[in-house]
Design brief:
By secondary structure, this protein is mainly beta. The chain is 8% helix and 34% strand. It has a domain of 343 residues. Strands 11, 13, 14, 15 and 16 form a 5-stranded antiparallel sheet that branches.
């Protein structure tokens, strides 16, 4: 979530009183797996964590092991002395350098924590950058003179020096401030915008519905494609075959060619014109299946069921679908239970927090008497069938405002992060699932070590940050990097 527009919606709901009313798949996937392994050796995958979701498949999985016992604490921290907002997962290059993007700056740190360079924005970095070769491709949101709306500016930054290579603005478009991402595959960049001519809603004036493609070498515009549903926190996936997949906020799924042609559309029809249903989306497995997580209600904050649907990439056919008891509010992850283990989906579900618009005592009363505590659950499902493997739930959270939101922050970085219910899970090569909470700020490492389908206390390691998370930890061999919205960035190393 985490945008000014959504924060406005939540404020409106709070003050208006609305809230008070509140196996054929294995065979089909073989060629995809082989292809994805081939693609992983290519130019755009030479770095360890390149973009939101980790790589071009956006499945938040790494094939190697990373530190999962937090009892000794982090190896080092970056202190975030300016109290900046960290909206995006840090990126990690081939030399284990770390790129931390706040709302106003990008910093390159060595693997030991030395700041190598800092790039200052003239706008807002509401979009997650991407690492491609010797470049960091980034997108700023720039203000128009005398207007509230923002327009996108693309740029290329040299990763060795931190110098600007080029930039290009697109003033015909507007961009929101949700936690979307910039993607680059095979020389083409993709990002999400709102067209000026698009019929916006009163409550969500910056619905991101148009996919734009530009040349990665100079930013020249190539094409745009208008969707019939908002894509929130845009993070498209590609199997590396010249196509792009993305999931909409209400369950639509599209497959586009790199030339901007619609190959197929799947999923339910939008529940209304200009519909927005939440902050979730989809991820691509190596088995030729795209997994879309979503809810169908267009009213934020109300309790709702979640749905996950599995679609065959080749033709968009529905393979299986499962309804869940809690709202889907985040992208799923897809990985393996160990190096030769079963492929599974880690599905984060839960209740999104509010911005700090009410006194803390009033929040406590509303939670106790009306809404009930906020919940977060991670479910793991068999990727081929949807059968549940295990689940793990956080302690219920008895406030509406996420941990750390009321503290003093850099005034240039906004008054609140307003994260999704929890970050995208990260799956490591040994089957460990890392979950970072937007409620209490816990970073949890979970693994069903005895394969009994139950995650007990001995199978969970917890690190307390006391600051809410918006996006997932990042990983490289033997290294885990966790960046809450407001606090320090924590680096764990073997």
């Amino acid at each position: 979530m985490a945008s000014f527009a959504v924060a406005s919606v939540l404020f409106w709901l709070a003050v208006s009183g609305v809230a008070e009313a509140l196996t054929a798949t294995h065979t089909a996937g073989k060629s995809m797996l082989e292809h994805s392994l081939h693609v992983a050796t290519g130019h755009e995958a030479e770095h360890y964590w390149t973009s939101r979701g980790g790589d071009m498949m956006t499945r938040s999985y790494v094939p190697y092991e990373v530190p999962s016992n937090f009892s000794s604490g982090p190896s080092w921290t970056w202190p975030n002395e300016l109290k900046e907002q960290i909206r995006h997962s840090p990126l990690i290059d081939a030399d284990m350098n770390i790129y931390i993007t706040s709302s106003t700056r990008i910093r390159k740190l060595s693997s030991d924590g030395d700041v190598l360079w800092t790039f200052k924005s003239d706008g807002v970095f509401s979009t997650c950058p991407t690492l491609v070769g010797d470049e960091l491709l980034a997108l700023e949101s720039r203000s128009r003179s005398g207007e509230v709306s923002l327009y996108p500016m693309l740029m290329s930054i040299d990763i060795q020096s931190g110098a600007l290579n080029w930039n290009r603005s697109y003033e015909a478009y507007s961009v929101g401030q949700e936690a979307n991402s910039l993607s680059s595959y095979n020389g083409t960049m993709f990002f999400i915008v709102t067209k000026e001519s698009y019929n916006r809603t009163m409550l969500l004036p910056e619905l991101p519905t148009a996919v734009v493609a530009a040349n990665s070498s100079d930013g020249n515009l190539l094409w745009e494609y208008q969707l019939d549903e908002a894509v929130w926190n845009f993070a498209p996936a590609s199997p590396g075959d010249g196509t792009l997949l993305m999931g909409g906020s209400c369950g639509s799924v599209w497959r586009l060619s790199f030339a901007g042609e619609l190959l197929w559309r799947a999923g339910p029809a939008p529940p209304g014109k200009d519909a927005w249903c939440g902050t979730s989306g989809g991820a691509l497995g190596p088995n030729g299946i795209f997994y879309s997580a979503y809810s169908r209600t267009t009213i934020p904050l109300v309790k709702a069921e979640g749905i996950i649907s599995a679609y065959r990439v080749s033709d968009g056919s529905l393979l299986w679908e499962k309804k869940m008891p809690i709202r889907a509010s985040q992208y799923p992850a897809v990985g393996q239970l160990g190096h030769d283990g079963k492929l599974f989906v880690a599905l984060p579900m839960g209740d999104g927090p509010w911005p700090p618009v009410m006194p803390e005592k009033a929040e406590e009363a509303l939670v106790t008497e009306v809404l009930g505590p906020l919940r977060n659950v991670v479910y793991t499902l068999d990727a081929a069938t949807g059968d549940e493997l295990w689940q793990s739930e956080e302690e219920p959270y008895n406030l509406l405002t996420a941990a750390g939101e009321r503290e003093q922050h850099n005034p240039d970085d906004g008054f609140a992060c307003v994260p999704d219910s929890q970050a995208i899970p990260l799956i490591a090569g040994d089957g460990t699932v890392f979950a970072s909470s937007s409620h209490n700020g816990q970073l949890r490492a979970m693994k069903d070590k005895n394969s009994d389908g139950v995650i007990d206390a001995s199978e969970v390691s917890i690190f307390e940050t006391h600051e809410c998370f918006l996006n997932s930890p990042s990983a490289a061999p033997g290294m885990l990097v966790a960046a809450p919205c407001w606090g320090p960035v924590y680096v764990f190393k073997d």
